[in-house]
Amino acid sequence: xxxxxxxxxxxxxxxxxxxxxxxxxxxxxxxxxxxxxxxxxxxxxxxxxxxxxxxxxxxxxxxxxxxxxxxxxxxxxxxxxxxxxxxxxxxxxxxxxxxxxxxxxxxxxxxxxxxxxxxxxxxxxxxxxxxxxxxxxxxxxxxxxxxxxxxxxxxxxxxxxxxxxxxxxxxxxxxxxxxxxxxxxxxxxxxxxxxxxxxxxxxxxxxxxxxxxxxxxxxxxxxxxxxxxxxxxxxxxxxxxxxxxxxxxxxxxxxxxxxxx
Length: 261
Prior knowledge:
The chain has 261 residues and is α/β, with parallel strands linked by helices. It has helices spanning 2-17, 26-36, 62-66, 88-96, 114-123, 140-145, 165-172, 186-194, 205-217, 219-237, 239-256; strands spanning 21-23, 42-44, 73-78, 103-108, 129-132, 149-153, 177-181, 197-201.
């Protein structure tokens, strides 16, 4: 409690000394504004992605050929396997879909939950799960382009209104987002607003499996969700759009403070 009190004091001091405080989600803005005590001092600026770096591409590529994925329906998870990421919900869904020979779950990453994932794959004989080491930033777009749908999964305990950056990457690659997380955060709102995929409740592996089957059976829906996601990134969350927004914010602040020349 004493350490928490100390850092809360530092937090308030930092906010007080700032001209503006920016957050990357609406619900984070609400929290910070309650600490700052001044709604006008807090701005909401969404995270962004380099839309020229992560592009839609052909499923047949170096990554898919190397791992035999070209003729499979690929459900991918790429990124850190840490305390916040729910690996179990993915593997439980994979267990339900073991008989669907065309569907393969590809988990690309490393972290504290990797051993848990290996153990579950072994215990449940999940031949439809492929565990692969992390790839470089340059190779990451190939993982997404090899995928038919990509996952974002968070533990029930993650109650902060975070928007995982991988959601933007998936949308930028033009494939559907399929999430499992607390539904009252900003990430589900973003996916719904962009019409870029579906989000089920954290830990609900049965609903996750149902959504995977639905997308597996409906190619046109997959295409539409992917197109929607890419369009939303280009129109709202690209680096260019973020730079334009920040430039306006800085100029308005300079004018307001009488520093603009």
